[in-house]
Design goal:
single chain; eight-stranded parallel beta barrel; about 40% helix; alpha/beta
Length: about 250
Amino acid sequence: MQTLFPGLVSVSFREHTPAEIIAAAAKNGLRGIEWGGDVHVPAGDLNTARSVGDATRAAGLEVAAYGSYYRLGLGHDFGDVLASAKALGAPVMRIWGYDRGSAEIDEKTFHALVEEARWVARRAAKEQITLCLECHHGTLTDDAAFSLRFLEAVGADNLRMYWQPNQYKSDAYNLEAARMLANVTVHCHVFHWDAQNRYPLAEGKEIWQQYLDVFRATGRPHGCLLEFMHDGRLESLSQTAHTLLDWLR
């Protein structure tokens, strides 16, 4: 059984319609789509969520996740994003961890975020939805060790992680972070960037093969979801998807 499967993050192509994204994903051999909550499936628009979910499945693709913009600690409404994830038929929903990096979070804030995370995780569990924080710069999960500390403090089986390389840190750090987080990771966002530039994915072959080996070794399924082409063009998805599929074979 293939433990790593290829997919796409819809925010890679915000200027394109869901129908165009579905067609491109299917044409290029991808298996699933994470639908973004900003443009393609706005939070609270349940008719759009149902329509996009149905169209995705009708094309033979999976709804891999709902990429929400709910942030812990900012007083955002959770009801709309949870309802949209349910209407979309998403088994997984991405949320964000606050608006500051781990080094800026004091103990009082940490415990308040833990309590909020427990609350949203309980609500999501009632809908059989897994919540995922991602290794994103400038959020509480920007550091692997801090991420594990936070997940342990929350103690919710349905609060997990997305993993992605941090373009502001070294390959060595990112590889170690992948090893630390692999067993709590649901999906990976796949791209090849540094702090200044975005590069064709194929140029990251050496390090990405090491990352993928880490997740392969868990023996569990992980979505490898392409996020943002190096040039932002839908036309570049074909070669980028070909690169990913070649790595996953």
